[in-house]
Amino acid sequence: MYALLSTFSVRTRKEAKCAAIAEAISTAVARTQELEKKIQGQRARKDEYAALISQQLLSNFLPINLLSLKFLYEGLKTLMGLFALL
User: Fold this and answer.
1) Which of these, 27, 17, 77, 61, lies nearest to 9 by C-alpha position?
2) What is the pTM of this model?
3) Rounded to whole angstroms, how far apart are CA atoms 31 and 33?
4) How far apart are CA 43 and CA 28, in angstroms?
């Protein structure tokens, strides 16, 4: 009888240990999925901010670039006018 109870208690401990391990794994998997979702959200936000900054830089760079092109064009036009005089 004692051997039967001893075997039963060992079996019960092993089952409890397995259940605890399974619960720990399940918790870890859920936590990993939650963190992956947060990372995806942060990446999306980072891409959004990068696009916004890029747009701002282009909007500030473009007028400067157009002014430079206009200046070069006017200089070239003046230079071509001087060559026409020769």
Assistant:
1) 17
2) 0.52
3) 5
4) 22
DSSP secondary structure of the chain: -HHHHHHHHHHHHHHHHHHHHHHHHHHHHHHHHHHHHHHHHHHHHHHHHHHHHHHHHHHHHHHHHHHHHHHHHHHHHHHHHHHHH-
Kindly report, residue by residue over 5-15, the tens digit of the pLDDT. Answer: 676 677 788 89
Query: Tokens 């240990």 belong to which residue?
Result: 17
Looking up tokens 């830089």 gives 57
What is the DSSP secondary structure assignment for residue 36, as one 8-state letter? H
Distance CA 34, CA 7 (A): 40
